[in-house]
Amino acid sequence: MTREEARNILASMTKGDSLLRHARSVELVMEAYGKHFGEDPEEWAITGMLHDADYEAYPEEHPNRIVSMLREMGEEKIAHAISAHYTKWGVEYETKLDKALLACDELTGFTIACCQVRPESIEGLSAKSVKKKLKQKSFAAKVERDEIEAGVALLGVDLTEHIEFIIKVLEENRKELNL
């Protein structure tokens, strides 16, 4: 699958600016991690882009719609990672791709939420500041902190370094992401 094909799939199911920005931000972070780990950055980017593609159009069926579509297209590795991006679904974590998507999804969205409450947005945002907000249960209350912890543990990365990695990628793309 090409990134263009993935964009067409995303556009067919997702219209909201917020969810499209989330898809793009996770795409960018996953692409960077793919490069970092010596994996296929295109495959990782597409996984990040499509992980919530069916959420807006089919919230009750998420992620089954996108997973089925990807499986029909022969994209089993991407489909499996997307089927596993929430621990409570009970899907096995088989690959680094599976673990990275879990580790990046919620935390990338959370980091953007941190930017949105700061007058300077992402400029000067530190891992320490993000970690402080993580401890504040009322901030971005829908973000499940246990999902972030599980992802970081499965991926085997240090939380501070992981947050710094995400911030760096977001900062490099701040204009496009409007941060």
TrEMBL record:
Transmembrane residue ranges: none
KW Nuclease (keyword) present: no
Keyword Isomerase attributed: no
Span of domain HD: 20-97
UniProt superkingdom: Bacteria
Any GO MF annotation of the entry: hydrolase activity
Keywords: Hydrolase
InterPro entries to which the protein is assigned, alphabetical: HD_domain
PANTHER family on file: METAL DEPENDENT PHOSPHOHYDROLASE, METAL-DEPENDENT PHOSPHOHYDROLASE
Protein name as it appears in the record: Metal-dependent phosphohydrolase
